[in-house]
Amino acid sequence: MLKWALIFFVISIVAGFFGFSGVSAASAGIAKFLFFLAIVLFLIFLVLAFTAGSIIL
Q1: ∠ CA(8), CA(10), CA(14), 5° rounding?
Q2: Domain parsing of the chain, residue ranges
Q3: Residue 9 in contact with residue 31, Cβ under 8 Å?
Q4: What residues contact residue 41 under an 8 Å CB cut-off, 6+ apart?
Q5: What does the DSSP assignment read for 6-44?
Q6: What is the pLDDT of residue 57?
Q7: How far apart are CA 20 and CA 28, in angstroms?
Q8: Measured distance CA(6)–CA(31) in Å, rounded
Q9: pLDDT in tens, 1-57
Q10: What is the phi-psi region of residue 19: left when phi exceeds 0, alpha when psi lies from -120 to 50, beta otherwise?
Q11: What's this model's pTM, rounded to 2 decimal places?
Q12: End-to-end CA distance of the chain
């Protein structure tokens, strides 16, 4: 998911460089959404891993 966020970020930078502000803003929004979604999923799985680890021990 972070890979796709990085791809959309690069698309946003390139589109902004060439003057396509609408495409740039849209791809930046998608990249931001994917980045924060990846962070939230990471935190959820981190909590689940600690919870499962404490149950096993």
Answers
A1: 115
A2: 2-56
A3: yes
A4: 1
A5: HHHHHHHHHHHHTT-HHHHHHHHHHHHHHHHHHHHHHHH
A6: 65
A7: 12
A8: 7
A9: 899 999 999 999 999 999 999 999 999 999 999 999 999 999 999 999 999 877 776
A10: left
A11: 0.81
A12: 31
The Cα 42–Cα 32 span in angstroms is 15
- Distant-in-sequence, close-in-space partners of 9: CB < 8 Å, separation ≥ 6: 27, 28, 31
d(CA 14, CA 48): 38
Altogether, the residues listed in the chain come to a count of 57
| Class of residue 19 by CB neighbours under 10 A (exposed 0-12, middle 13-18, buried 19+) | exposed
How far apart (Å, rounded) are the C-alpha atoms in residues 37 and 14? 23
Q: Could you tell me the two tokens for 34?
A: 């994917």
Instruction: Say what the pLDDT of residue 48 is.
Output: 93
